[in-house]
Amino acid sequence: MASDKSSSQMAHISPASLRSLPPRISYLSSFLSFQSSDGLAIQASKPLIAPLIPVALDLVYTKLLGYDITAKAFVPRQSGQENGPSPTKPQDLSLTHEHIVHRKNFLKGYLVKLVSNQDWTPTSPLWDYMDKVGIAHTGEPGFAHRAKKPGLRVEFMQLGVLLGFVEDIIVGLVLEMEGLDLQTKKDVILAWNKLLWIQNDLFARHYVTDQDTGEVPRGVSNKTSEKKSTALMALATGLTVGLASGIAYGACF
What we know:
Distance between the termini: 36 Å
Oligomer: single chain
């Protein structure tokens, strides 16, 4: 009888539906229990996190410039970088180099957009923006204004580890904030944890092959894409780790 009850409560998710962004966000939100209250917690964190964004940006790019495998993505000249000599190797870069200042401004705009969002429904323009951020790192344009601009290719491993580092910064900043009660800190940390794992999936979907839907990685040849793992497996693994991370955070408070 218990088995019958469990089966009757099992939600059906069509793999093909996950090719469309709203159903995908709906599933991600359901699995991670990302609710309107989480969106409100992220919005409420704006006056706390926004003033600390410059510090966070320096931490992020100091980390990225600490490894040649992550710094190499900033060597090619991108749109909006018209002044000064172009670097020839990662070691030519610094926090004040034009290429890094340009990328810092992009990340600043990204973080401000997240904390300023007020629509957290599956059809919110925010998810489309986050999805295009994922596409833009595959070497394809992503955004219309970049259609004729040089491509930017960053491998998925580096994007994933960066999100982990960004989350570490946010958790540390929130925990150290004075004047916040424990419940508020918990709500904000759990909400950001869920949001960043959704962003992780919106990177992953453009880098791996989905054998159910037929989607293939962007910015690489079909021969290369055949060697990738499936997007559905990446989605399931990411969601499971994200959920476990949220449970661990919750258990600490």
